[in-house]
Each structure stands twice: as structure tokens, then as C-alpha cells.
Specification:
The chain has twelve helices and twelve strands. The protein folds into two domains: 144 residues, Rossmann fold (3-Layer(aba) Sandwich), CATH 3.40.50; 119 residues, 3-Layer(aba) Sandwich (Rossmann fold). It is an alpha/beta fold. The two termini are 19 Å apart. The strands form three sheets. A six-stranded parallel beta sheet has the order 4-3-1-2-11-12, sandwiched between helices. Strands 8-6-9-10 form a four-stranded parallel beta sheet, with helices on both faces. Strand 9, helix 10 and strand 10 form a beta-alpha-beta unit. The protein is globular, with a radius of gyration of 17 Å.
């Protein structure tokens, strides 16, 4: 039994860790496209091609269901993949929709028309490619009306985290929060629209202030995955647990071990 989890780098390990805690009997195949990370500064076509190649690799590993634990891939590639590439017996799910459902207090599968919600002013922190795609705003508009979203492209944060330079990452986060506040002085909620950002959640919260509700993805996505598998047990694939990377397995293993504070060993994809 295995579900695939894909990210351009190591940020998706935050989703994997939460999913393993939520579904301790489930096995996961994690694929990090470290050789091509970060995706957040690439073109939409590049992101699509790289994401398709990675998902195909996870299908080949026996996964019938793949989670794109990469907001950039979810924003720039998922819809195009769903419309013309994914085989009928496979499923690929993104990480945006569960987050938006939590933000708008909607239950899974609620397809009723968009309605007014309590939160009116939302700050979105994401990679440049995710911000440019406007995918978050599009998905939010399907579910809620009257919500003002101010997006802040957080250049450099993913690179700093992947390099293990958390001092630089913290400085960049505070700089991006300051830039956001110049555009939206009083957000009610903040969405961390990158799976790397939960590693900096305390810094985001401190910079934003305690009155701002910060929505992070890992636990939200894990709960949604558990719900999906309850309803679609046929999508539990036959693969075996593995950590795969297109980059240098030793270097990626070292970084992953630092991320999760437990031994993680990657193999070449």
C-alpha cells in the first residue's frame, strides 16, 4: 500500500510527516525533484513538464494516488494535468483546495454556490510562480465572495530553507511580512501557500502578530487525505515506501534528516 507525495524539494516533508502521523498504517513514496528546485521561479510550461515527469515516476512506483505537496506545481500544473494527461484510473490531488476549505469553513465535497464568509482580508504568502498563477484566488472565488486577497511573492525563502540557512530564511520572512503589511495593514488571516513555510510558521506568526490567524497546510492536507482514502480505498496503490530524489541522495538525505529530526535516507529516482 503506498500513496505518492511529490514536491520540488523538501518542503513536502511537512505534509509527509503529518500524513504519517494521521495514517500510521499507510506507506508513502516521497519524490523530491531536487535537481530542478526551486520551481517557484520557473515558467508555467517548465513546471508542467517537470511535474508530469515526477508524477509519472510515482505512478511507475505503484502509486495510484499522488499528492502534489508543492503549491507551485498545484497552482501552475494540476488543472492542465487533470484536463488532458492523468490516466482515468489514477488520481492527482493538490494542496490548495483543502486549505481553502479550511479557510472558508467548508466541508469536503460542498459544491454549493460561493457565499460570504467571516474572513474578509487574507494575506497569501507564496512563491513568485504561485502568486503569478492566481490559482489561490481562482479556487477561493469558487467557494467564497467578498474576500480581499493580497498576495506577497516570497522570493528567496525556499532557497534559504533548502540550504539550511534558517537565519536568512527568518530575515526574509520578516521582510516579506513587512512588504505585505504595506499593502494590507490589517489582515485577518494569513495563508502559508508553500509547504516549506510551516518550518517558518512561528516566524510568520510573530511578524504578523497574534491577532492574525495563520493557516498552514500540513495537518489540513493530512486530514483531507485520510477523508479521501476513506471514500476511495481503491486508490491505495501497491507500491512500497521509499524516499526518492533527482538530486544528490546523500546531500538530500542530510537535509531531510535535519528537517524532520529523524534519519531519512533518499535513493536516486
Amino acid at each position: 500500500m503506498a500513496v505518492g507525495i511529490f514536491d520540488s524539494g523538501l518542503g513536502g516533508l511537512t505534509v509527509l510527516d503529518a500524513a504519517q502521523k494521521r495514517l500510521p498504517e499507510m506507506e508513502f513514496v516521497y519524490l523530491a525533484d531536487s535537481a530542478h528546485a526551486p520551481y517557484g521561479v520557473r515558467t508555467a510550461d517548465d513546471i508542467y513538464d517537470l511535474t508530469v515527469a515526477a508524477v509519472r515516476r510515482l505512478f511507475d512506483a505503484g502509486c495510484d494516488l499522488v499528492i502534489l505537496a508543492c503549491n507551485t506545481a498545484s497552482a501552475a500544473a494540476l488543472r492542465r494535468m487533470q484536463e488532458g494527461w492523468i490516466p482515468s484510473h489514477k488520481r492527482v490531488l493538490g494542496v490548495f483546495v483543502p486549505l481553502i476549505e479550511a479557510l472558508t469553513e467548508r466541508h469536503w465535497g460542498d459544491n454549493s454556490p460561493p457565499r460570504e464568509v467571516e474572513v474578509k482580508h487574507v494575506a497569501l504568502f507564496a512563491t513568485p510562480a504561485t502568486v503569478a498563477s492566481r490559482a489561490f484566488q481562482r479556487e477561493l472565488a469558487f467557494r467564497a465572495i467578498g474576500v480581499d486577497v493580497e498576495a506577497q511573492a516570497c522570493g528567496g525563502v525556499v532557497d534559504a530553507i533548502e540550504d539550511g540557512d534558517m537565519i536568512l530564511a527568518e530575515a526574509l520572512v520578516r521582510s516579506h511580512v513587512d512588504a505585505l503589511r504595506r499593502k494590507m495593514p490589517d489582515p485577518q488571516a494569513a495563508v502559508l501557500g508553500c509547504t516549506h513555510y510551516p518550518l517558518m510558521q512561528d516566524t510568520f506568526q510573530d511578524a504578523l502578530g497574534g491577532e492574525v490567524s495563520v493557516f498552514s497546510q500540513a495537518n489540513i492536507v493530512a486530514d483531507s487525505l485520510a477523508d479521501y482514502l476513506d471514500r476511495h480505498p481503491d486508490k491505495i496503490g501497491a507500491g512500497e515506501a521509499a524516499f526518492l530524489t533527482t538530486g544528490d541522495p546523500r546531500r538530500v538525505s542530510d537535509r531531510a534528516t535535519q528537517f524532520l529530526r529523524r534519519q531519512i535516507t533518499f535513493a536516486a529516482a
